[in-house]
Design a protein that fits this description.
The protein has three domains: 116 residues, Periplasmic binding protein-like II (D-Maltodextrin-Binding Protein, domain 2), CATH 3.40.190; 82 residues, Periplasmic binding protein-like II (D-Maltodextrin-Binding Protein, domain 2, 3-Layer(aba) Sandwich); 76 residues, Double Stranded RNA Binding Domain (2-Layer Sandwich). 33% of the residues lie in helices and 24% in strands. The protein has nine helices and 13 strands. The termini are far apart.
Length: 312
């Protein structure tokens, strides 16, 4: 059976809506007769921006309502930033499609300061990410790193109002929103290793929904899928979760996969970084091995202290 319509569920933030409409447009180009509806929902993370993500159970607060819409049949697919997707999906759901990755790194955003190194001692950098916090504090222990919530536009307004001296934001998010001109500088992975899955979009569906998958299959990018699978395998081995101070980035060249990952203390006092290369056909095994190497070097202690659990 060929479906004549699909329903995409999405958060109602500007960036999430851009992502959903991007997938809708890609599907329309592939299947001109297909009707694609975008359904916006408000998630827990959107409704309670005065609460920390950790208090709401982590980044799963961004996608829980979207997954409920898939499970109850209200929607056929959900579009996610892969850096927000939990490692373990609810029973009955799958993540079969990962689109081609856009620029995966982070951007330094400031008014009047050219780089992270140019910030004066005591400057306030806004980010809600423990991954970014640990790396910034490791490189610049003299800076103050302060939590910030809200969508990209809200964060930029807080910067412009003088509440922060600088922000760290994903390059891909700024590009998707047409805000690339707000980037002061791109931060190389050597300076700030990206989040696992950063820059990639994933499509979540009901498991075994063959008719939906047949329509979506051409959107999958094999190279990106391999890289993100390796990165997510690191997180699975660490059992760190989306909010943990964990970073990971894989690159595929000439059939060889090179993956780098790190775990750090949010105060920057300790940072453990490892890299590993191997065949792209062993992506998940490489990620798992790299996670094991981080654990052997003490990542288990850091995660137990920071996240309050035993990653083993």
């Amino acid at each position: 059976m060929t479906l004549s319509a699909l329903r995409i569920v999405t958060r109602e933030s500007p960036l999430a809506l851009w992502q959903a409409h991007h997938v809708r447009d890609r599907l329309a180009a592939l299947h001109p007769a297909l009707e694609v509806e975008v359904i916006g929902v408000s998630t827990e993370a959107d409704r309670f921006q005065n609460r920390t993500l950790l208090s709401m159970g982590g980044k799963g607060a961004f996608i829980k309502e979207l997954e409920e819409a898939l499970l109850n049949g209200r929607a056929d697919l959900a579009v996610h930033s892969m850096k927000d997707v939990t490692i373990d999906l609810p029973e009955g759901l799958a993540l079969p499609i990962i689109l081609g990755r856009e620029e995966p790194g982070d951007a330094f955003v400031a008014n009047g300061r050219a780089s992270l190194a140019a910030l004066p001692r005591g400057a306030v950098v806004g980010t809600s990410s423990l991954r970014r916090r640990c790396q910034i504090r490791y490189a610049r222990p003299d800076l103050e790193v302060a939590d910030i919530r809200g969508n990209v536009g809200t964060r930029l307004r807080k910067l412009d109002a003088g509440q922060y001296d600088a922000l760290i934001l994903a390059v891909a998010g700024l590009q998707r929103l047409g805000l690339e001109q707000r980037m002061t500088a791109r931060l190389a992975p050597e300076t700030l290793l990206p989040a696992i899955g950063q820059g990639a979009l994933g499509i979540e569906t009901r498991s075994g929904d063959a008719d939906v998958l047949a329509l979506l299959a051409p959107l999958d990018d094999a190279d990106t899928h391999i890289c993100v699978s390796a990165e997510r395998a690191v997180s699975r081995r660490l059992n760190g979760g989306c909010l943990a101070p964990v970073a990971g980035y894989a690159v595929l060249e000439d059939g060889q996969l090179r993956i780098t990952a790190l775990v750090g203390r949010p105060d920057g006092s300790e940072l453990i970084r490892e890299s590993l290369s191997g065949s792209h056909g062993d992506a998940e095994a490489l990620g798992d091995e790299l996670g094991g190497r981080l654990l052997a070097r003490g990542a288990d202690r850091i995660l137990a202290d920071v996240m309050g659990h035993d990653p083993s």
